[in-house]
Amino acid sequence: MLRKKPYLYFTAKEIEPRGWLLRELRLQADGLSGHLQEVWPDIAKSQWIGGDCEGWERVPYWLDGFVPLAYLLKDEKLIADAKKYIDFIISHQRIEPDKPTPNGWICPVKDDIEIENFDVWAVFLLCKALIVYHDCTGDERIPDVIYRALKNLKFHLDHFGCRAWGSYRWFEALISILWMYERRPESWLIDIAHNLEEQGADYKKIIHHKTWDKVGDGWTLGTHVVNVAMAIKSEALYSFILDLDGEPVDPDAFAEEMYQTLIKNHGNGIGHFNGDECISGTSPVHGTELCGVVEAMFSYEQLFLITGKEKWLERAEELAFNSLPAGLSEDMWVRQYNQMVNQIYCGKYPVDKRPFLTNGIDGGLFGLEPNYGCCTANFNQGWPKFALSSFARSEKGIAAGAIAPAALKTEINGVRVEVELATDYPFRNELKYVIKTEKPVEFDFEYRIPSCAVSATVNGEKKAPGRYTVSRVWEGENTVGIVLELAAGFKELPRGLSILWRGPLAFSLPLDEKWEKVEYEDMGIVRKFPYCDYILTTDSDWQYGFASEEVKFVEKDGFGLPFTRAEAPVTAEVEMVPIKWGYKDGFDGTVARDEPQERKPAGEARKMTLLPYGIPKLRMTAMPLVDEGEKK
């Protein structure tokens, strides 16, 4: 039998987003996510539904986020759209028992020769999306569809092998293999897992290879930021297979080693690592890809289930509250491919001169699909999967998960139980869990005080950061009220720079933004408002350092959409001083230097207002504390 996970997430049938999280999901549905099937040929006319456009990863990527979005919102139109795609895909799975090569094949191809050369990464991804659909609907067709697809995958691996993207994302197939093994524990499923591990990339070697210490050595699959974001969970997933073979390993050890290696060598100071599009060092102007953000979030959300360690939820929260909204426009109609911590311009660069190490010239644009369309399809999973991680089922009850406003409706021992987290965290410091039961029932309720709090009080009793369990008979309505004392201050980065934080929120100096619409058609794909491209420029002076470590945080009452300038829930007032920073060589007006030319004051200090990092798209975030710089 498979080793049990310490936790299991509830499904969209049981989770209800509330408060600001519900508003973010509705905004996503009203924006690009909910309209890609209408405006983007790679979804609307995909080979997956009988069209002639992209027939590999983009529809599965989109479905992986679109399906839970539709069901979390209980949006009948989106649910019908999702069903249309799933029904078409299922009905076109090839069922030919007398022909082992195509039997069970599920991806769109022209002929059997194309199957031999197909990159089966799309198979892994589609099966993952089908599992999400099954969680949302209970569709009884799905287990048989995945069973046949995995049978075909075994034949494919045995005869044609795993190549390219599939070989560097081999562990993603373990999600569906383990899911199927729980339902049908057949030995050939374990054979597939071993075959994938044998043919796939070995990240235990890759993270210690010399290429990981170098920056700018070219594009490789082994250093691709999305691959490594996915791979953080690779050994944890494979540990279930090793455990079956009597070779138990710590599922957390490699994940933590890989995470720490990435943060040390490529950390961007916002709880993530740079990759533009391959891992790219610690410069605040190299940036990171939006796909890497949402895949790291998913890895961390899964690692919490597998290891039981709350640090992974905290890491997912840091990305959700900072890097995810930073890569999306306020209305979520356009997205950015590559976000920089210090970003003073978003637009195209000359063909022969670009600031990115491996990205294209339009990697910084906001638009429908700048640089590559993968992020257009894949960003959709970020908020819905985060919402689904808000509560988890423990062995003896319910565990609070990612901290965001949400409610759970479930049954324990046949008794209806509701748990709601009412909160404006991370913008406020109060959490209120309201637990209601239909009649008396005994279970454990676990809650978490995040490590970004100095301390907390729980129903008036002082508590330290950590996870706590309340074991009791619950009856009627009960409240667990938590007030956090959030840590605040400056975190040091390489190059003598610092970032201001309060709790899980980083803060940036916002620059005035001029959004220039660019509408056009390219290769038959129309970009028009509201999903056109945008060039962002500023007239703001951005060359500053922190003049003081004294900070005043100001909270705004009655906010609606938290990641908008007009409704910023919290701001930071701090003394700042102009300094001579300068532009990166050859990028006058578009890219700041990695660090300032001089750190001595170039004028009088003045009080300035900083916003949470996820709000401004043009911003300075990593800046020097000028007094410390002068001492150096």
List keywords for this structure.
Immunoglobulin-like; disordered C terminus; 7-stranded antiparallel β-sheet; 10-stranded mixed β-sheet; 25 strands; 20 helices; 632 residues; alpha+beta
Helix content bin: 25-40%
Give the helix/strand class.
alpha+beta
What is the terminal separation in angstroms?
A: 59 Å
| Mean model confidence by pLDDT | 95
Please give the radius of gyration in angstroms. Answer: 24 Å
Number of strands: 25
Our count of helices gives 20
Please tell me what the overall shape is: globular
What about the largest sheet? 10 strands, mixed
The fraction of residues assigned to DSSP E strands is 15-25%
Low-pLDDT residue spans:
628-632
Compile the SSE list and pairings.
Layout (H helix, E strand, L loop, with lengths): L7 E2 L5 E3 L1 H12 L5 H4 L1 H4 L13 H16 L2 H16 L20 H5 L4 H17 L4 H18 L4 H5 L4 H11 L3 H13 L3 H4 L18 H7 L2 H11 L8 H14 L21 E2 H18 L3 H16 L8 E2 L1 E2 L26 E2 L6 H5 L3 H7 L2 E4 L2 E4 L5 E7 L2 E9 L6 E20 L3 E6 L2 E3 L2 E21 L1 E6 L3 E6 L2 E6 L3 E5 L1 E3 L2 E3 L5 E5 L6 E12 L14 E9 L27 E7 L6 E2 L5 H6 L1
Helix pairs in contact: 1-4, 4-5, 4-7, 4-19, 7-8, 7-10, 8-10, 8-11, 10-11, 13-16, 16-17
